[in-house]
Protein 1
Amino acid sequence: MADTSVIGRASFVRGRVTGDGDLEIAGRVEGEIAVSGEVVVEATGLVAANIEGRRIIVRGAVKGDLVASELVSLEATARVVGDLRAPRIAIAQGGLVRGQVATSGGGAARPRAAQATAARAPARETARREEPRREEARREEPRRVVPAPAPSKAAPAKASPAKVESKANGPAPRGATIAGSRVGPPPPVVPVLKKGTKAVQKKR
Amino acid sequence: MASTVIGAGITIEGEITTDEDVTVQGTLRGKLVAKDAVTVEHGGVVEADVTGGPVSVAGSITGNISSSDRVDLQNGAKVVGNVRATRITIADGAQFKGNVDMDV
């Protein structure tokens, strides 16, 4: 415990944070974070950095890749734009992610190889990117209190969990609506991607 | 507890800007700008210019220190750099090399 470092909520760090020990971020960090212990991004935390650690727990906002040797856990208030890589990944209801999700035992070597192949085949990249999100949605479905049996990418399936969400998650309306719509066929992040890909196609 | 702590074993290379207390037990290279107290504990290494409120040093600082309040160099402290403050104490056993600038 003595080795826990804290970036307080009124603090702003620009640069590299490295070393041994745990790190708790309630303020802002821009740059790079690589520590051997647990990294906790609190609800007030705002991180624009790639984070490496043994365990990464996110309750705030992160823009950057999260690579953990043990666990990445996104809690209900988490907002992450970036890839997740860890042997175990948890995304709570209401947690927002835009990026690739890969549960693999390896460190950075294997995911980087995967990224390279994705770059080589850009046409398949969007499909690849959609895959993990659909998995997420499927994974989350059993946890939800969904009365409708097996919602199979149809319009009613989209509507009913959204209603359940809004009733259950009163204090977090934004997260709730987005998380609810994620169950349906068009996850919130995919339209953004599709717009991008369309634009790219038009340019070509 | 609303403060920033750089624990032992942690190295920050870059700039820290904060409105609250900062305690350095690890290593900081770059720049430190605080509005409140800055404490460099025994074993803490700061290679940076430090701006803050009261600055208390038991570790090592290489860089200029500018304080709106007081600077205390405690036993075991090692400071290389200029110190600008309204009040300053240098304890027996503190190492200090640099200029002192006090508003007289």
Protein 2
Amino acid sequence: MKLDVNGRLHEVDADPATPLLYVLREDLKLNGAKFGCGLGQCGACTVLADGEAIFSCLTPISVLQGRRITTVEGLGTVEKPGPMQRAFIDRQAAQCGYCIPGMMMRAQALLEKKPAASEAEIREALQPNLCRCGTHMRIVHAAVRAGELMRGKS
Amino acid sequence: MANIPSARWTPASARAKKTLLSAWRLFAEVVLAGVLIVLAGFAGCASESPIAPGAQPQSFPREQVTKGAELAHLGNCLGCHTAQGGKPYAGGTPIKTPFGTIYGTNITPDADTGIGRWPLEAFTRALREGLDREGRHLYPAFPYDHFTKLTDEDIAALYAFLMTREPVRQENRTDKVPIPRAFVGVWKSRYFTPGAYQPDTARGAEWNRGAYLVQGLGHCGACHTPRNKLGAEEKNAAFAGGEVEGWHAPALNGSSPSPVPWTADALQSYLRRGIADLHAQSAGPMQEVTHDLSHASDEALRAIATYVVSLDTRGEDERRRHADAALERARKVKAMQGNAIYDGACADCHNRGRAEEGGALELPLGTALTVPTPRNLAYIIRDGIVPPEGERGPWMPAFAGMLTDGQLTDLLNYLRALSGEPAWPDVAREVRNITRGDQ
């Protein structure tokens, strides 16, 4: 079956019940999304489907035919980071970094829909994602900063 | 103290009979409502006499406060009297009713904005008769039709508990209900029967304790009993299943939709833990109830379970037949599951069994599959079941965003078919409404 990931169509040879995360990491070699709990409890695997944040560890590829999937690799490159990535670098939000791609994708889903989201709305939206290092304050600051960058504030 | 409202209106023989067609019944109710509003002016139902404010309350015995704390959990007082992110018992919670939005009030002991100047007598009258300290009628969203059954001792304990909470200065919000308070007086004269719980001497102490808690403080019927057009519980259909905040509150009586009939053991465990593997995982408005009940004593939960299970008046043989048939159907269904969405998104947990780590409710036995509407199941799949912030509890991830409306519809239809119940009508439309945010 075909999967649209980061604007590219990929032919995937996998069981339709396979969770997206395994296809991303093992077949497409996109290792941004992380395996954390495999139960949708930690959010480390979060990616976007048609702009909505989803747990890729729980989502069978069978439901994603014809939908637009975005991973953290789709937000920019090392040379040219997107506003979300730029903000996380500026605010030095990562400690071990394992949860960060998921955090960025969930914040991205909110800010794409609502670029002027308040800090309270960002905190609310990020509830499903956990960080074991405890860098939540910086993560929230980075997401607020990303909103500013997206709104063209320098 | 317990002055029964003086202007009691005795229902005439024209009391709508069960057999009347619903259209005629609605007409009758509307005419009645009009007549009653006019009568209200003459009957002096507008309000009762105020009770003078008292001094700020003193201290209370520790045991009484502890007892009051358990009672407050059993009554789920926080549910309506604490806003999301707000201070406990300071009110401001919006409660959506078919008649408009009512806001839970501040019941902290703040002297000006709470109930700090309410003497015990006024507190008692509010619970027993639905009147505030000034003597104004309270909207029956405050379930005084249940609380009227409370004993003096329990009311005093609740009072002691509330009066020893942190006082919070927070003005009450104005209700958005286009119904004059005077009408509530008339409504009460027709639908509200004040009076303490009367034990059934043919039953044991545990059963009576359960009946007292369920009918009184627990106000279970407020959600699990259907209501008429004027918002009063249908007394002749007690515990036959009702509606709350867009959710269906399943029947607790002989028409319980649980494929395997509940036992007292299963129900007691469910009320404590929020999950019973052959029945349900508490979700929606019930989630905060089981969370509250997780703090209650075994004795209280056992009594509640004993009473509620007794409401299912089907004989032991019939219950056993239902259970056996449901378990057999579930076993067969598991052997032939084939829906790609279920296999990919649900089976990993739901086919594992509760005994294993990460194992979920036994499907297709869940009650959400057998209630008359797909809404409960759609809400659960979309939003998951997430314990209140910072609390522990049974849990399921949210699948919002993962499934399109079409896929969610397919999954709902599939699960319904697995349950063996006839198909839900127009699932696609319900899903569209839910996605749009309608109730």
